[in-house]
Amino acid sequence: xxxxxxxxxxxxxxxxxxxxxxxxxxxxxxxxxxxxxxxxxxxxxxxxxxxxxxxxxxxxxxxxxxxxxxxxxxxxxxxxxxxxxxxxxxxxxxxxxxxxxxxxxxxxxxxxxxxxxxxxxxxxxxxxxxxxxxxxxxxxxxxxxxxxxxxxxxxxxxxxxxxxxx
Length: 166
What we know:
The chain is an alpha+beta fold. It has one domain (39-165): 3-Layer(bab) Sandwich (minor pseudopilin epsh fold). The chain has four helices and eight strands. A hairpin with a 4-residue loop joins strand 1 and strand 2 (82-86). It is elongated and about 90 Å long. Keywords: Membrane, Transmembrane, Transmembrane helix. This is Prepilin-type N-terminal cleavage/methylation domain-containing protein. Pfam families: N_methyl. The chain crosses the membrane at residues 12-33.
């Protein structure tokens, strides 16, 4: 075999092969991108789990309060993007940087999530000493966290005090 015949075949891709490859990669990437969850979807899941955990904490504290020192209330506010709990007999810290068992904040949206439009419905929930919601007229209390793209998560508390959701 001569050196000329060895290099006479061109190596590489033809223009048609390159165009087909680019088209296939474009189709695959567009399909994969639409199936990825949005950042707000991750935020909503995180807030939902944080809220559910906070509600259970307050519910447990209401059941463990043998002195029956007043109502244990959970209040959500869409305006501030916060969920607070209160009890008139306890001196709770409502500061933004509070931590620990005396912190009244169960959940607070970050300023970035507030700008993105993540919201929570305004709701009031009061527990009795058995961990059940006091409002007997309403069989289910629901906290709904939602985003402008339509994604949403709910935490529901039924009349017997069972906390579900996320």
